[in-house]
From TrEMBL:
GO molecular-function terms, A-Z: endonuclease activity; magnesium ion binding
Highest taxon of source: Bacteria
Stated name of the protein: Holliday junction resolvase RusA (Prophage-encoded endonuclease)
Pfam families listed in its UniProt record: RusA
UniProt xrefs under SUPFAM superfamilies: Holliday junction resolvase RusA
Matching InterPro entries: Endonuclease_RusA-like (IPR008822), RusA-like_sf (IPR036614)
Organism: Deinococcus hopiensis KR-140
Amino acid sequence: MNPITLTLKGRPRSTKNSRKIIRVNGKPRSVMSDSAAAWITSARASLKKQWKGRPLQHAIHLHVHAVFCDRHSLPDPDNCMNAVLDALKSIVLRDDNLTWVPSFAFSHEVTPGAKECLVLTLSEAV
């Protein structure tokens, strides 16, 4: 498999630390925040435009390189990865568990004035 590169615009929002509590039939339920849900929706729409075909049916290595424009308030890498994996699920990847993504890496750069984005590189798992 040749490496595949996909790009997602904007800064990912935490799907883990930004949950809110709502009541459903009088019972409290934890749901994703509006900002996290909006980012996931936008990321999935972008992936659908970039990805043609069915989700991959084999394990891959995922490298996420984040470009941020400001070094202040950098997000946690694990929160970025959670958001990316949630966005990839069922579009690019069959699932986001360790069977399908046994290895992943995260790197970032801070470039003042840059448009924030995530560059995803998928390659064959070894």
